[in-house]
Structures are given as C-alpha cells and as structure tokens.
Amino acid sequence: MKRSVLRLTAELDIESAFSHYFHDASKIVASRFIESVDNAISHIEHHPGSGSARFGELLDSPDLRSWILTGFPYTLFYVERENHVDIIRLLHQHSDIPVLLQDAI
Known about the structure:
Layout: E1 3-6, H1 8-24, H2 27-46, H3 54-58, E2 64-68, E3 74-80, E4 84-92, H4 97-102
Parallel strand pairs: 1-4
Antiparallel strand pairs: 2-3, 3-4
Helix pairs in contact: 1-2
C-alpha cells in the first residue's frame, strides 16, 4: 500500500463539493460524499495502477490516472509516485476536465 498525499487543489475541490452537498442537500448526503471520497482514496492507495489512463493519454501525461467516485459525479485524478500516490484534483464529471488539469500536471 502507498499512502496518499492530497495537493491543496484536491483538498479545496473536496471541501467545495462537501460544502455544496452539506448546504444544498443534507448532512447525510455530505457525509456519504466524504465516505465515497475516503473509499476511493483507499482503493487508489491499495491499487494505484487500476485507475483509468484516459485523461493521461489525452493530456500527454502517461502517469496520470483517474478514479470515479461511487454514487457521485466526481473523479479523482492522481499520479503514482515511488513512495506515495499524489492526488491532484477532484473534479465534477461535467466540468472542462482537460482545461482544469493542464495547470495541475
């Protein structure tokens, strides 16, 4: 298992989505969102090579991988490093993902 390290951008993405669910849905939905994020991160830590390389190929960044959250329209973007998993962003699936990732990778 490789530990994960969240970049500030990823932390802010998670906080923003959590706040949205907390204020616009309910505490329960916000809690489920965090649980889904935690489960995705745990999966990535145990199986970093299992994420999709689609956006990595699109952005000419072969190490970039993504993992879709369960039950929520968000995707985690990360790169496996030698000693950890670098979690770069958490983006809504309907956002302009290639543009938002260009400065992050």
